[in-house]
Amino acid sequence: MVRSLFFLVSALAIIGSVAHAAVVEYTFEVANLTITRLCKSKVITAVNGTLPGPTIEVNEGDTLKVHVINISPYNMSIHWHGVFQMLSGWADGPDMITQCPIRPGKRYTYQFNVTGQEGTLWWHSHVSVHRATVYGALIIRPRGGRQAYPFPKPFKEVPILLGEWWIDDVVDVHHQAYLTGGAPNISDAFTINGKPGDLYNCSSTEIYKMEVEQGKTYMLRIINAALGNQLFFKVAGHSFTVVAVDASYTKPYKTDVVVLGPGQTVDALMVANAPPARYYMAAQAYITTAPPPPPRPPFDNTTTTGIVEYNSTNPSSQHVTATMPSFFDSGIADHFSTNLTSLVRPGDPTVPLQMDERMFVVYGFGIAACEPGQVLCNQTQGALAARMNNVSFQSPTTMSLLEAHFKGVNGIYTSDFPQKPPMTFDYTNASVNAAPAPQPLMFTARATKLKKLKYNSTVEMVLQNTAILGVENHPMHLHGFNFFVLAQGYGNYNATTAVKRYNLVDPQVRNTIGVPAGGWTVIRFTANNPGVWIMHCHLDAHLSIGLAMAFEVENGPTPETTLPPPPPDFPSC
Ligand SMILES: *[C@@H]1O[C@H](CO)[C@@H](O)[C@H](O)[C@H]1NC(C)=O
Ligand SMILES: *[C@@H]1O[C@H](CO)[C@@H](O)[C@H](O)[C@H]1NC(C)=O
Ligand SMILES: *[C@@H]1O[C@H](CO)[C@@H](O)[C@H](O)[C@H]1NC(C)=O
Ligand SMILES: *[C@@H]1O[C@H](CO)[C@@H](O)[C@H](O)[C@H]1NC(C)=O
Ligand SMILES: *[C@@H]1O[C@H](CO)[C@@H](O)[C@H](O)[C@H]1NC(C)=O
Ligand SMILES: *[C@@H]1O[C@H](CO)[C@@H](O)[C@H](O)[C@H]1NC(C)=O
Ligand SMILES: *[C@@H]1O[C@H](CO)[C@@H](O)[C@H](O)[C@H]1NC(C)=O
Ligand SMILES: *[C@@H]1O[C@H](CO)[C@@H](O)[C@H](O)[C@H]1NC(C)=O
Ligand SMILES: *[C@@H]1O[C@H](CO)[C@@H](O)[C@H](O)[C@H]1NC(C)=O
Ligand SMILES: *[C@@H]1O[C@H](CO)[C@@H](O)[C@H](O)[C@H]1NC(C)=O
Ligand SMILES: *[C@@H]1O[C@H](CO)[C@@H](O)[C@H](O)[C@H]1NC(C)=O
Ligand SMILES: *[C@@H]1O[C@H](CO)[C@@H](O)[C@H](O)[C@H]1NC(C)=O
Ligand SMILES: [Cu+2]
Questions:
Q1: Residue 113, helix vs strand vs coil
Q2: Distance from the CA of 156 to the center of ligand 6, in angstroms?
């Protein structure tokens, strides 16, 4: 029965695919916005005066044009998180990777086709810390419209953007961390669709409310837009069926808790089948940093809330509260993150089996020399840094990587990102932290190293966390591609045992994967998109201290596999 329903839906999708692809246009004005949260008024940077910013809606196959006008006082760029950007790398957005920023007073039109992916993605600033407030949803429906979903059409679709809020100016918070070479201050609140909810002091009216009707099915398009936290999300009295993650369909997966790392999205169906009342929705941090040494760093232990209200609720009825998991419940998180599988449909990409490139990437924290601008940095000790294969990524300053790649300009980067770490050690053994000084494994250097890939080459990457200066789950995000997640585990990767666990049939397909704290993850992708693509930790504080590398994917043999030149209004430095 389920199967025949599925084939009917597929047939409709094919009929629907004759529908014309449209050109969809939006205008985004990025500007100061004075806003009050937690009883304190402040100026933030926002798009069109709203937090979150406008929701973009397209059908698969459409051409999207977004005119970004920057009237904020800051350099700006927008990244379309998870969009493949096939042959349109000039529109990907990361500052100094694919473009120079849009300077204050300037504008740039991002133009690209949204092809070969459906579900929930999002957009956010990719300059410094500005994604704290410059973000919004990007919804991709099937070409055939809502009736072409590979699951029963929901009654309504509701974006749920989970954010993070600082009472202080985020630019100041970020700058202070830079000056000291340490970690930034933790946030004061989490938010649901821009609102903290009623568990914070003097914020009881700043709460997101969703109205539901008894018996109807709602699709929650949940996005973790937080800067530095993985999150648990629940709705009291209700359960979910997950049908997609990162705009890639999954086999229906039933759960009463959704777990998202920063950058990840989950599409979850929720049936309003509880007795009419007001039910809390809630999100709170999932913490993976673990002692012993060093002690667990401070974290934002607050809970953001929203309300799911049945339209037939008696006004005097009580709120039903959600019971959240413990902050440290890795059992719940791992169960969710490892049990998802993809819905493999005819014509979908399959896991590459012949590998052209095998990379073993050991990554985590380290110590680097203080930079000249880091005036409060302890010169003896050095600054906190993050690294992949012992390279702490440094952004170029005079020309973007993509432009340098396209024009063949030397001196901006080198193409020698290492295939494996420079030294082997017991990566996840915390005793590395107790080694006598000077501790050689602690030190790292900053550089701009890229990994060159032939067009269409297949890549396997083992991502191995280290315990140096503490373990933590790092959500790794790849631009330009989705990847298959073959296996994940704790401890040191061991090929002999790991290979037996690889899911080569229906692994989850993602653009962002949380690599377990003190563990490893194996991913594969096909480099079928020429350009320069950054891969980085989506914890903002880790990206800014170098937890990144980039791929340089060569052109293919034909005009259809060659990156076109940049558009005429492309920003220059
Ligand atoms: C954003 O604001 C601009 C300027 O007022 C307006 O032209 C545009 O339509 C708005 N965009 C959205 C998505 O609301
Ligand atoms: C925007 O806000 C900043 C302070 O955050 C202020 O310095 C600047 O003058 C404001 N710009 C405009 C155009 O209001
Ligand atoms: C985007 O789609 C349009 C219309 O289908 C097509 O003409 C154009 O070549 C596509 N652009 C890219 C970069 O694929
Ligand atoms: C960070 O937190 C410390 C301690 O609470 C405080 O003194 C400092 O002003 C904060 N920094 C910023 C930039 O808000
Ligand atoms: C809320 O305000 C009360 C009274 O001012 C204070 O004691 C408490 O610490 C505050 N709680 C938070 C979470 O800020
Ligand atoms: C959150 O952390 C603060 C400061 O450490 C502590 O006082 C408070 O009890 C914690 N609250 C929860 C809910 O864990
Ligand atoms: C809830 O909404 C539905 C659909 O509009 C309507 O039929 C029903 O009467 C409403 N219930 C109440 C109590 O308003
Ligand atoms: C995946 O789900 C199955 C059955 O629901 C369970 O037995 C298994 O432990 C789960 N895997 C993980 C890693 O939690
Ligand atoms: C700088 O770091 C060194 C080595 O860890 C430590 O001994 C010294 O106290 C630190 N200095 C300051 C000013 O914190
Ligand atoms: C790239 O690989 C795909 C299969 O993985 C193949 O269909 C396609 O022809 C290849 N393209 C080129 C130009 O080699
Ligand atoms: C990897 O696992 C195999 C099989 O359990 C074991 O024999 C081998 O010693 C392990 N290798 C390492 C480096 O631990
Ligand atoms: C803004 O971008 C320009 C061009 O890349 C750069 O020179 C300048 O330093 C940037 N400004 C800030 C405040 O980062
Ligand atoms: Cu990280």
A1: strand
A2: 37
pLDDT at residue number 9: 36
How far apart CA 67 and CA 29 sit, in angstroms, is 8
pTM of the model: 0.95
Q: Which of 229, 134, 209 is nearest to 514 (CA)?
A: 229
Tell which residue, 537, 126, 183, 129, has the closest CA to residue 364: 537
CATH 1.10.287.110 fits 357-561, yes or no: no
Tokens 């568990």 — which residue? 199
Is any atom of ligand 9 closer than 6 Å to the C-beta of 381?
yes
Ligand nearest to the CA of 426: 11
Show the tokens assigned to 439: 């501790």
Can you tell me the mean pLDDT for 178-200? Answer: 97
Expressed in angstroms and rounded, the spacing between residue 458 Cα and the centre of ligand 3 is 25
Is 2.60.40.420 the CATH number for 151-344?
yes
Give the DSSP per-residue string, 94-108. -BTTTB--B-TT-EE
- Residue ranges per structural domain of the chain: 1-149, 151-344, 357-561
Average pLDDT, the chain: 94
Q: Is 54 exposed, middle or buried (0-12, 13-18, 19+ CB in 10 A)?
A: middle
